[in-house]
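Much of what follows relies on a compact textual record of a protein's fold. With that in mind, consider the following protein and its fold in token form.
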Amino acid sequence: MIAWSDPKSALTCLVNPTNPAGDKYGRGADEELHRDHVPDDPTIIVNKITQPWVGPQWRQDSAINSASGSSS
């Protein structure tokens, strides 16, 4: 295993909220990670399968809303 910020990294997987700890990154964390920390042309897998357990506001933080510019 190599660090996600290593230039040799070809794949980064972001699980949000984390499992099993449940730590949650806010809206825009995916974009910030990509912009500031990963090498050029990486493959990023974003796993948000546990978001519905966060509560009814989980859709507001979804990657789909971030990508579409939606706030609902």
